[in-house]
Amino acid sequence: MLKIRLARGGAKKRPYYSIVVADSHSPRDGRFIEKVGTYNPLLKKDDAARVTLKIESIQAWIAKGAQPTERVARFLAAQGIGSWTHGNNPEKGAPGKKAQERITERAQREEDRKAAEVKAAEDAAAAAAQAKEDAKAAAEAEAAAAAEAAAAPAAEEAPAEAAPAAEETTEG
Fold it and tell me: Taking a C-beta distance cutoff of 8 angstroms, is the pair 54, 44 a contact?
């Protein structure tokens, strides 16, 4: 199987890569069939000399069945040859079963806490309304008692005045 891949060159800590077409069984820096480009990671990303490709040669090798590696596929996609999709597994970073259980338990506790807060607020509002009604009823009762108290001495005074008048009429 043919691969279009990188072959490392350059000094220690100064990498320089050749983009080559090679048999998949040959070593990374070993035998290759054709050199089809270069990659210099030390240059700035917007530098034109960072990646150089022989487009026609690469297209010919792809037509013959050569498969580009991930990194080379990125370079080719940037040049408009083929397409590159992110190769990572999107589910790899998802939480496991235990973590999902903990998340659902946390969410349930949070919902219960909020429901308890709402219930407590409703109970407090109902208690405040009941207290207000009780205070209003007590105020009405006090007003009624005060009215009765004010009416009672007037009622007591009225018969007292009437009684001596009645006595005067009987004596006379």
Answer: no
CA neighbor of 1 nearest in space, from 57, 65, 62: 65
Return the amino acid letter for 14. Answer: R
Helix (H, G, I), strand (E, B) or coil at 44: coil
pLDDT tens-digit series, residues 88-109: 777 788 888 999 999 999 999 9
Are the CB atoms for 49 and 41 separated by under 8 Å? no
Distances (CA, A) of 10 to 88, 89, 134, 143: 29, 33, 91, 103
Q: How far apart are CA 25 and CA 11, in angstroms?
A: 25
Token readout for 44 is: 């700035």
Of 47, 67, 71, which is closest to residue 58 (Cα–Cα)?
Answer: 67
- As to burial, measured by CB atoms within 10 angstroms (0-12 exposed, 13-18 middle, 19+ buried), residue 76 is buried
- In 12-163, DSSP assigns E strands to 14-23, 34-39, 51-53, 67-68
Q: Is the pTM of this model over 0.90?
A: no
What count of other Cβ atoms lies within 10 Å of the Cβ of residue 19? 26
Which tokens in the block code for residue 106? Answer: 């946390």
pLDDT digits (tens, 9 = 90+) for 44-70: 989 889 999 999 999 999 999 999 998
Amino acid at 81: I
Q: Which residues partner with 4 through β-bridges?
A: 21, 68
CB of 94 closer than 8 Å to CB of 73: no
